[in-house]
Amino acid sequence: DQQVKQNSPSLSVQEGRISILNCDYTNSMFDYFLWYKKYPAEGPTFLISISSIKDKNEDGRFTVFLNKSAKHLSLHIVPSQPGDSAVYFCAASEVYGNKLVFGAGTILRVKS
Amino acid sequence: DAGVTQSPTHLIKTRGQQVTLRCSPKSGHDTVSWYQQALGQGPQFIFQYYEEEERQRGNFPDRFSGHQFPNYSSELNVNALLLGDSALYLCASSLVGGRVDTDTQYFGPGTRLTVL
């Protein structure tokens, strides 16, 4: 039972343009959502999070949008840079600090 | 400020053997979680330790066990290894009662386990 789904295995974007990564979830008890970035041979790096009481959170070039009625969240990266090329994981938890449920990841390639 | 560290980096074992992986949390963190990441998949939660006790557990068999020490470091033990246990094992640390927007789970680089 995949509670968190990232339906796009990969995404290719031109440098300077917007990257939009999508994530859907099925568990209505999820209260806290996060995005992680992972380079090869490294552990996931925390990017940005959002709690269910918000619909948007920004941090520099990264913005996460949450649509609770659609059980959908997205990560916007503007402008995209070649260094953003990595695997991006969406994760969710029912309670802050408790176990994270991850999607399968989306490979982002930013072309210069 | 030291981040999450894990040892060893790589490990090769044969079926039926036992393995112990180690994790030191980020400075100031008191909670350690372990995840298994198979090739092409996202990390899957194994268990979480806080105050030296298992606080939460995912859908993993009893062959997977852990321990947390008074200095908050942790071990993951896997007995009777199977070929399917080959994966990247990730440790994440966090702080109970920390700030929601910043004190989330921080991951180490992982231990790559290969079972032959």
Q: What is this entry, summarized?
A:
Chain A is an all-beta fold. Chain A has no helices and eleven strands. The termini of chain A are far apart.
Question: What are the salient characteristics of this protein?
Answer:
heterodimer; A: 112 residues; mainly beta; Immunoglobulin-like; six-stranded mixed β-sheet; 54% strand; B: 116 residues; 11 strands; 0% helix
CATH architecture of chain A: Sandwich
Uncertain segments of chain A are none
CATH class of chain B: Mainly Beta
CATH H-tier superfamily of chain B: Immunoglobulins
**Tally of contiguous helical segments of chain A:** 0
Tell me the series of helices and strands of chain A, N- to C-terminal.
EEEEEEEEEEE
Q: What structural class results from the helix and strand content of chain A? A: mainly beta
Give a description of the structure.
The complex is a heterodimer of chains A (112) and B (116). Chain A is mainly beta and 112 residues long. Chain A has a single domain, classed as Immunoglobulin-like (Sandwich), CATH 2.60.40.10. Helices cover 0% and strands 54% of the residues of chain A. Chain A has strands at residues 4-5, 10-14, 19-25, 32-38, 45-51, 56-59, 62-67, 72-77, 86-93, 101-102, 106-111. In chain A, the strands form two sheets. In chain A, strands 2, 4, 5, 9, 10 and 11 form a six-stranded mixed β-sheet that branches. A five-stranded antiparallel β-sheet of chain A has the order 1-3-8-7-6, with no helix packed on it. In chain A, a hairpin with a 7-residue loop joins β9 and β10 (101-102). Chain A is globular and about 40 Å long. The mean pLDDT of chain A is 95. Chain B is mainly β and 116 residues long. Chain B has one domain: Immunoglobulins (Immunoglobulin-like). In chain B, 0% of the residues lie in helices and 49% in strands. Chain B has strands spanning 5-7, 10-13, 19-24, 31-37, 44-50, 53-57, 64-68, 74-78, 87-94, 106-107, 111-115. In chain B, strands 2, 4, 5, 6, 9, 10 and 11 form a seven-stranded mixed β-sheet that branches. A four-stranded antiparallel β-sheet of chain B has the order 1-3-8-7, with no helix packed on it. In chain B, a hairpin with a 5-residue loop joins β7 and β8. Chain B starts with a strand and ends with a strand. The A-B interface holds A 4, 6, 32, 34, 36, 41-46, 49, 51, 57, 89, 91, 96-105 and B 4, 31, 33, 35, 40-45, 48, 56, 58, 90, 92, 94, 96, 98, 100-101, 104-110.
